Amino acid sequence: MSQNETSGTVAVDNQKIRTKQMVLIALMTAVTCVLGPLSIPLPFSPVPISLTNFAIFLAIFVLGMKSGTISFIIYLLLGAVGVPVFSSFRGGFQVLAGPTGGYLIGFIFLALIMGFALDHFDRKLVPTIIGMIIGMAVCYAFGTVWLAKLLSLSFKEGLMMGVIPYLPGDAAKIIIAAIVGPKLYGATQKIR
């Protein structure tokens, strides 16, 4: 095989990898757009129970830190321009500026922290779960400060309204994602 043929083969292989990655980013953005609006409103809080963090967990398992975070940012941008992809099928910049906006922005940190753990510990499950937990804690902190400031609450009141009721459900999402995520990743690796 000549040098030109080898270069051509490498270029084609690199293009396939980039195309596959772009398709997976689009697919995981679509999954987040489908799961994100599914939510259960709670009468005592402006923060509904949603599947957005579960979608982020799956996206990071499939894509890793960089591409998973890009996927979530695309989702945020779609919602910010008015596509109804946020909880309860809402969209628009006013949602980002509202009581749940801190959690939506906080999900970027979740993606980065979980993705860092996944990428830097060779996809080992325990460090990845620890990354999920730390990422959720940072997201909770960011969202709680935002919620408390916007609604003139103390930090403790913000925790009671925007974190404590969600802990059992988020723990269940972490467990389910830890089971399903590696299988999704394995399935995507078989795609050529």
TrEMBL record:
Q: Which UniProt keywords apply?
A: Cell membrane, Membrane, Transmembrane, Transmembrane helix, Transport
Membrane-spanning regions, if any? 22-40, 46-65, 72-89, 101-118, 125-143, 163-185
Q: Family assignment?
A: Belongs to the BioY family.
Keyword DNA repair in annotation:
no
Task: Provide the protein's localization.
Answer: Cell membrane
Enumerate the Pfam families for this protein.
Answer: BioY
PANTHER family from the UniProt entry? BIOTIN TRANSPORTER BIOY
Q: Which domain of life is it from?
A: Bacteria
Q: Which GO terms describe its cellular component?
A: plasma membrane
How does the protein associate with the membrane?
Multi-pass membrane protein
> Per its record, how is this protein called by name?
Biotin transporter
GO MF assignments: biotin transmembrane transporter activity
